[in-house]
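Hi R.,

Here's the chain you asked about this morning:
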Amino acid sequence: MKTLPGMLFLFALTLISFSLHAQRFHGGVMGGLAATQLDGDNLGGYNKPGVRVGGWVNTRVWPHNILQLELEYIQKGSKVSESEIKSGKYYHSLLNYIQVSLVAKTSLMKRLTGETGLAGGYLTRSVEDKDGGGFIEPEPDDAFTQFEFSGLVGISYALSENLAVNVRFNYSLLPVREHPGGQKWLLNRGQYNNAMLFSLYYRID
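And the predicted structure, written out as tokens:
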């Protein structure tokens, strides 16, 4: 999306302006790396690297609890490991999302905060390379769903008053694609995004 950087910049400015005019609210930006895989694609390991970048705004709802809204661009997908490539296997998918998350944060210690929440993602791009010959868009019968609904859990550690490091687990609650042939077995209904996120959060106001 060519307009994505401009959208995120505009959102960040909106958060700053809103935070400055509402004392109960604080806002900032975040950025970091994602290590991802697709559960259900017969590959294992967080071998697909990606980025996440966006902005956030929050408010304290109880003395030890904060409610936070986030908007981000995040890259997910799947990739074979180096050992699998050596054995003649190859697969690589790129899934880019605009994701909105609602996060409940709870103070655990002086600098440590736990979090849990829900996220909705809109798929802006999906391509895959099944044989090492280059990326192509999936066939219509093999396409990924346009929307993703996921859950998240994580922890944050405050390095200073304005800077925190965050580790988060983000997992699809509904399949992002059916298995080939539409097979289903109990809770295994298809392929699911599985992401470990490592980020820095910076408070601007």
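The chain has a mean pLDDT of 88.

Let me know if you need anything else.
M.
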